[in-house]
Amino acid sequence: MNVDVEIYYRNIIHFFETNPEQLTILIGSLSKDKFFNKLRNAIEKNYTEIKEPELTRKQMVDLVWELHVEEVKKIKRKPFVETKHGMYCLN
């Protein structure tokens, strides 16, 4: 593990631990463990490919989008989803 990758990852973790409402704003009801695993993989991939651990805004949005798509695929057969805003039909 590269030191730059570890420092960047730990800083993000620390930010979300001290500001949990920001994590909720970013990922909603998604699993934070899944988010952090995907985040770490994206950071490592970035460092391997371009030698920079920092993620762009687009990369972060894409990462969250992938997690949401995975969740929607899980409920594929259930057209109704309950959220904090009420019940939605995915039909």
In short:
The protein is mainly α. 67% of the residues lie in helices and 9% in strands.
Description:
With 91 residues, the chain is mainly alpha-helical. It has one domain. The chain is 67% helix and 9% strand. It has helices spanning 3-18, 20-27, 32-50, 57-74; strands at residues 80-83, 86-89. Strands 1-2 form a two-stranded antiparallel sheet. Helix 1 (3-18) packs across helix 2 (20-27) and helix 1 runs antiparallel to helix 3 (32-50). The longest helix is centred in the middle third of the chain and has 19 residues, at 32-50. The chain is elongated. The mean pLDDT is 88.
Helix-strand makeup class: mainly alpha
- Give the distance, in angstroms, between the N- and C-terminal Cα atoms: 44 Å
Helix content percent band: 55-70%
Beta-strand segment tally? 2
Bulk shape: elongated
Write down the overall mean pLDDT: 88
Number of domains: 1
Calculate Rg over CA atoms: 15 Å
Sequence of strands across the biggest β-sheet: 1-2
Secondary structure elements and their pairing?
Layout: H1 3-18, H2 20-27, H3 32-50, H4 57-74, E1 80-83, E2 86-89
Antiparallel strand pairs: 1-2
Helix pairs in contact: 1-2, 1-3, 3-4
Question: Which characteristics define this entry?
Answer:
mainly alpha, two-stranded antiparallel ribbon, 67% helix, elongated
